[in-house]
Write a structure and sequence with these properties.
alpha/beta, 8-stranded parallel beta barrel, 7-stranded antiparallel sheet, 25 strands
């Protein structure tokens, strides 16, 4: 009797996150509708989860939501200039979420929990001014200011939460309405101080902007925890992107995540914006969060920027000092986001020639969870508009990740100006790929793709390098790329190749 074969485990499908906004999207309140129309094509090109922009009401209908006013208003109440947020109404949001759910895309919420903006009135409070370069140092004696610290949420009238916010719910602010002076004011009161569980840049980096929430106040803690439960009851999200986490209490954030696990259930994906070019600081934060928390790989973004702006830069060092190298399971990789895009405060200039190389490095390698930027797929609006980057090829690279980037990874980082790698495929995702890139002249590499591919004919899915590569009997091929370019070689008969080049990037022309 023939012994039965042991069933093989199916290969886990690669996941890709999409940041579903850029900073200069028009404030026409149609963004939720546009995304709803786009999710089917995004799913078809390999996107699994959308990081949507902050959906809570901001201080105006032009704000992107980081100027957050009311956590409990998702575009439902007539506040701050109207019912809608910049992105649309709550009804529009729910239609987007339903369509995304129907096609199998998850929603990641952008939680802005560090501050509040757009107060309804001023309140008097005692403060001291602190040195903006060292917030642990007082530079005045205590005195009274009129701060924009009273939040009544009159349009909501106590629905969902009856708490109104007052000066004692905050630890700092930046404007004295009594004399028009802008400074960093630490609010005084019994037991009040900056949080101890924040980044130590500037002495203590608790204060970032607007009215800074004080999570040592029990009403603030209780209200935000209640909001997290309420949000899940309203919007079936799969994860949360936490904004500005180096500026508010990590102890509170741990407590909030434990609260969500207990009240809603475990299994959340959580990622934080800890924007600091310091691997030590980032790995320390991940350890303090017991590795239950991911971070965006900030050092990798700056490596991309530096290499792309340095003549004859060493490509083999692209992952040096990065979170991807140190903590690959907790690294969210990216090329650009709304803060680093051109004309933003944290703009990290990445030369256009390098963008395709960077996207191959985050999408086609095994390490990290890649996040693709809206502006690179659909272009950037505003006063300095830009078309989609990479000649419109980012969606094809996303699809290549979904279809071909599986199996053992062999890296050929042996030439400072030409690097490459191969993915050998698996038993149930067999096709594999070979990627080679150069930041100088035309280049080539002999690379191994496996004897299982003997005799196959591979071509460049990007169409930037003509020719064919026939895999020899030992499983090797000579893979080439053009000068200052990249090529992604895949079996010309691989399933799914007929879907490449079909993405519709004209998101603004659909409505």
């Amino acid at each position: 009797m023939q012994q039965s074969e042991v069933p093989r485990e199916p290969t886990s499908e690669n996941a890709t996150m999409f940041q579903a906004f850029e900073w200069y999207i028009p404030a026409d309140r149609k963004h939720w509708d546009r995304l709803r129309e786009a999710v089917t094509s995004l799913k078809a090109t390999g996107i699994d989860n959308l990081w949507i922009p902050p959906g809570c009401k901001g201080s105006s209908q032009q704000g992107n939501g980081y100027d957050i006013y009311d956590l409990y208003d998702l575009g439902e109440f007539d506040q701050k200039g109207g019912i809608s947020t910049k992105w649309g109404t709550k009804e529009d949001l729910m239609r987007l979420v339903q369509r995304a759910t129907d096609v199998g895309i998850g929603i990641y919420w952008d939680a802005v929990l560090n501050q509040k903006a757009g107060a309804d009135r001023t309140e008097q409070c005692q403060v001291i001014e602190v040195d903006p370069h060292d917030r642990t140092k007082a530079i005045t004696d205590p005195y009274s200011i009129d701060g924009w610290l009273g939040f009544d949420f009159p349009g909501r009238r106590g629905r969902y939460s009856t708490l109104t916010y007052h000066w004692y719910h905050f630890s700092g602010t930046d404007y004295n309405n009594a004399n028009g002076k802008t400074a960093i004011y630490r609010i005084l009161g019994d037991g009040k101080d900056w949080s101890k569980f924040v980044d130590k840049e500037k002495g203590n980096y608790d204060y970032l902007m607007f009215a800074d929430l004080d999570y040592t106040h029990p009403e603030v803690e209780a209200d935000v925890k209640a909001w997290s439960e309420w949000l899940y009851s309203q919007v079936p999200i799969k994860g949360i992107r936490f904004d500005a986490i180096k500026h508010y209490s990590g102890e509170f954030l741990q407590s909030l995540l434990a609260h969500l696990d207990a009240k809603v259930g475990p299994g959340w994906f959580v990622v934080g914006e800890f924007w600091k070019d310091s691997l030590d600081a980032m790995t320390t934060y991940i350890r303090n969060m017991q590795h239950k928390f991911s971070l965006f790989d900030v050092p990798l973004v700056y490596n991309f920027s530096s290499i792309s702006n340095t003549e004859n830069a060493d490509l083999t060092k692209v992952f040096e000092g990065t979170l991807t190298a140190a903590e690959p399971l907790n690294a969210v990789t990216l090329v650009m986001n709304h803060d680093t895009q051109p004309y933003q405060a944290l703009a990290a200039d990445i030369q256009p020639f390098f963008k395709p190389l960077a996207y191959c490095l985050i999408l086609l390698r095994a390490e990290g969870y890649p996040c693709v930027f809206y502006g690179d797929v659909y272009g950037i609006k505003g006063d300095h508009p830009l078309p989609p980057s990479c000649g419109g090829k980012v969606p094809d690279l996303c699809l290549a990740r979904k279809l071909y980037a599986y199996g053992e990874q062999l890296s050929y980082f042996d030439n400072p100006h030409c690097i490459g790698w191969t993915r050998l495929g698996t038993w149930d995702r067999p096709f594999g790929l070979a990627c080679v890139m150069s930041n100088t002249g035309p280049a080539e590499k002999w690379m191994y793709v496996g004897q299982a591919h003997e005799g196959e004919v591979w071509t460049d899915i990007l169409g930037w390098k003509d020719g064919e590569v026939t895999i020899n009997h030992d499983g090797w091929g000579r893979f080439t790329c053009a000068a200052v370019s990249v090529a992604v070689w895949v079996n010309r008969s691989a399933e799914g190749r007929d879907q490449l080049g079909k993405f519709d990037a004209d998101i603004y022309g659909r409505r």
